[in-house]
Design goal:
Number of domains: 1
Structural class: alpha+beta
Shape: globular
Number of strands: 5
Number of helices: 2
CATH topology: YaeB-like fold
CATH class: Alpha Beta
Radius of gyration: 13 Å
Helix content: 25-40%
């Protein structure tokens, strides 16, 4: 089972989104539940292309919340590197 960790930048992203998007008080718990799937299936997320390679993403507790992560197979480690609003033109999935 893979370990899932959050980078310092990812924590800052989530803290900022809690404020700017007026997310509920249980946001961190909801995100934690969303991340559980990565423990068993670290490659479940779609791989990103271009400047975002080799990152992958899954959707968080809301369909607009992107969770960007990398999977380090030798260490069986999932590192969440960012949280993004998929509706933003700067999001990793933006065309």
């Amino acid at each position: 089972m893979a370990q899932v960790r959050l980078s310092v930048d990812a924590v800052k992203d989530l803290d900022r989104m809690i404020l700017t998007h007026s997310l509920p008080a249980d946001t961190r718990d909801r995100v934690r539940r969303s991340l559980r799937v990565l423990e068993q299936f670290p490659r479940i997320g779609r791989q990103l292309e271009g400047r975002w390679t080799p990152l992958r993403f899954i959707l968080g507790p809301w369909r607009w919340l992107l969770i960007l992560y990398s999977y380090e197979e030798p260490d069986d480690l999932v590192l969440v590197v960012a949280f993004q609003d998929a509706q933003s033109s700067a999001a990793a999935t933006a065309g």
